Structure to design on (120 residues):
């Protein structure tokens, strides 16, 4: 029984479609047929069509195999490489807690020195 495809929001679908289109264009620039890329990637032509269409049902492994056949697998190194939000959250967790200011009326001064009597 086939699995239900994952729920994909429009923005995510747009990202997948754009990725698929870039992969298709990369294949065409290299003058490779879809049959050749599918064979080298070890996937079916139907799966390659899904990858190039940005189908969310295509596995990440299929995308990686196509990237590898096209010589673009190192592009994966750039994904989430600069996690600005995560680093800020990490820095906030590492910062020492801020000290609370003392209340104005509760200032404690050191005790005055005891009275000393001059020796006679």
């Amino acid at each position: 029984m086939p699995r239900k495809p994952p729920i994909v929001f429009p923005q995510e679908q747009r990202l997948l479609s754009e990725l698929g289109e870039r992969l298709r264009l990369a294949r065409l620039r290299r003058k490779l047929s879809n049959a050749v890329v599918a064979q080298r990637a070890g996937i079916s032509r139907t799966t390659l069509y899904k990858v190039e269409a940005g189908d969310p049902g295509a596995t990440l492994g299929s995308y990686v195999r196509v990237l590898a056949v096209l010589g673009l697998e190192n592009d994966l190194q750039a994904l989430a490489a600069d996690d600005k939000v995560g680093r800020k959250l990490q820095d906030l967790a590492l910062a020492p807690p801020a000290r609370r200011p003392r209340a104005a009326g509760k200032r404690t001064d050191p005790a005055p020195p005891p009275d000393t009597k001059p020796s006679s």
User: Anything to note?
Assistant: The chain has a mean pLDDT of 86.
